Amino acid sequence: MSDSAPSPKLDFIREIIADDLASGKHDTVITRFPPEPNGYLHIGHAKAICFNFGIARENAAVGAKCHLRFDDTNPEKEETEYVESIKADVKWLGFDWADDLYFASDYFEFFHDCAVHLIKQGLAYVEQDSPEEMRAKRGNVNTPGTFSANRDLSPEENLELFARMRAGEFKEGECVLRAKIDMSSSNMNMRDPVIYRIMHAEHHNTGNAWCIYPMYDFAHPLEDAHEHITHSLCTLEFENHRPLYDWFIEHCPVPSKPRQIEFARLNLTYTVMSKRKLLQLVQEKLVSGWDDPRLPTISGLRRRGYPPEAIRHFCKRIGITKFNGTTDVALLEYDVRDFLNRESPRRMAVLDPVKVVLENWADEPLAEAVIPNHPQNPEMGSRKVAVSNEVWIERDDFMEDPPKKFFRLGPDRYVRLRGGHIIKCTGYDKDADGNVSLIRAEILPGTVGQDAPEGVKCKAAIHWVDVASGRDAEVRLYDRLFTVEDPDDAEGGFLSVLNPNSLESKQAKVEPLLADCEAEFACQFERMGYFVADCKDHVPGAKPVFNRTVALRDSWAKKGR
Ligand code: ATP
Ligand code: MG
Question: What CATH topology corresponds to 471-559?
């Protein structure tokens, strides 16, 4: 899986870029990833990151670059914690902005100069109508807007009013600066949009230096131009804003002319991706935090054990198009499983243990079993696992009255303990509730590493954990956070379709190596799925905690849900 090479067939944006380089319109490419630091990044952002940084990487020969720019123009919702988490997530995904780390708030002076320039050209004015009046005068798609009294003020009067706005002489909402464009445009974004508003709020970077802040539609093209971005790639919802983007580029004193191109955002089934909704889940403690393994956040996916390679591969596979749609989350899980199947060492853990006593152990005691770390990859070597006369096996691997096709343990049936003997069940005990509490069995001497002897039907090997040396561990099994494909569309709101069983915690038995592994160690629990030692709660040796990354097979597909 090579995820750095471009796809053989170029998507429409890569095609445009290739043409611009071939025609000499540009001699290099500069893209940017411009998150607003008001939340943690999610898998949708991963698509934008892989796309923008990927284009830079593919065009390294012409010195292409991708900037990481924090779009931090709104003082109210932005925090340093988010800045740090975003940097960590981009790096973890495997990308590097080198020296190109920028903050839009460093350009406040430049935005202000552009606004003053527009005012001087008669292309911006200070509006003193209330927000309600502005809305009423804006008209609608069928009705042109009407002019406010402020629209005809002279540049001198506007310059003075704008200076007073900046000096803090007005309260929030008392006035705004508007671009003077076209009050009857069929594109509502062009009807004299607000470009500056008053906010008496402290900014995480500029403190109290400003009490006026630029609006996104005004600031974004200026940020791009300031950084000499050649291709400003954004999601489709900005398509209607492009004429405005181009208008600001045309009328402001900018050092370069970036081009905005839109592509479809990533939507995934069984999850929500809006930052507002993710924030609500975190704030209402419906999940354990931004990095809860059930969230589609990059830090959540990481904690869950999703490898960055698999995320990059997924982003490449879904491609770049102009049509919004929803991608089945099973596709992402497929890539994760595919990668982990190849790369993960195998270990043994029993999630629902029942004890087996091997009554004739003394006939051929074994000190340890030698078990390959990967069934298809001998280079991963093997390990020795201590074993003795009592082992834990999965409750599901035993049936009191098994059907013919059940090849695991049952009365008088045979099964192999992985890397050890073939055993035969000779009896079992039950507790007061009627549950099997103990299985009795005997080993078949001479069967370690050997085929079953004549007359012995043994078709399966099961995993186990030695009772004497095995250790306790907490294992967290995750299911989808929502019970329906599109929680955003749920009648009672997205919270009404939260899956109450999305987290199940188990007390498991694990082989000693697992209990002592480092945090973030990833492996397959043989026959059970892919797991990772939790990056926060796992304490090697003392308190092992594992997260299930993904089951071996897609159980949702099997159940036909
Ligand atoms: P919000 O949820 O508040 O609308 P956002 O997810 O758009 O925010 P930004 O910080 O503005 O957050 O996003 C940074 C970049 O990531 C933008 O260029 C945006 O287009 C892109 N992006 C965001 N969500 C997705 C998505 N689901 N798929 C692809 N790109 C996305
Ligand atoms: Mg956005």
Answer: Ribosomal Protein L25; Chain P (2.40.240)
What residue ranges line ligand 1, CB within 6 angstroms? 34-36, 44-45, 47-48, 234-235, 265-266, 273-275
Check whether domain 12-103+218-332 has CATH 3.40.50.620, yes or no? yes
What phi and psi values does residue 178 have, to the nearest 5 degrees? -120, 145
Radius of gyration (C-alpha) of the chain in whole angstroms = 31
Rounded Cα distance, 94 and 516, in Å: 28
Residue ranges of the chain assigned to CATH 3.40.50.620: 12-103+218-332
Atom of ligand 1 nearest to the CA of 36: 10
Which ligand is located closest to the Cα atom of residue 298? 1
> Which tens digits make up the pLDDT trace of 380-412?
999 999 999 999 999 999 999 999 999 999 999
Atom of ligand 1 minimally distant from the CA of 238: 20
How remote is the CA of residue 37 from the centroid of ligand 2, in Å? 10
Query: How many C-beta atoms surround the C-beta of residue 416 within 10 A?
Result: 19
Task: Put the strands of the sheet holding 124-127 in their side by side order.
Answer: 124-127, 176-179, 194-198, 212-214
C-alpha 33 – ligand 1 centre gap (Å): 9
β-bridge partners, 391: 356, 466
Residue nearest to atom 25 of ligand 1 (CA): 44
CA nearest neighbour of 526 among 351, 391, 318, 353: 351
pLDDT class of 558 with cuts at 50, 70, 90 = very low
CA of 468 to the centre of ligand 1 (A): 52
* Domain 347-466, classified CATH 2.40.240.10, yes or no: yes
**Among protein residues, the one whose CA lies closest to atom 26 of ligand 1:** 44
- Cβ burial of 109 (10 Å; 0-12, 13-18, 19+) is exposed
Architecture of the structural domain at 108-216: Alpha-Beta Complex (3.90)
Q: Which of 40, 45, 269 has the most ligand 1 atoms within 8 A of CB, as the residue to mutate?
A: 45
Domain with CATH 2.40.240.10 in the chain: 347-466, 471-559
pLDDT tens for residues 448-488?
Answer: 999 999 999 999 999 999 999 999 999 999 999 999 999 99
Q: CA 274, CA 284: separation in Å to the nearest integer? A: 16
What residues act catalytically?
A: 36, 265, 275
245: CA distance to ligand 2 center in Å? 15
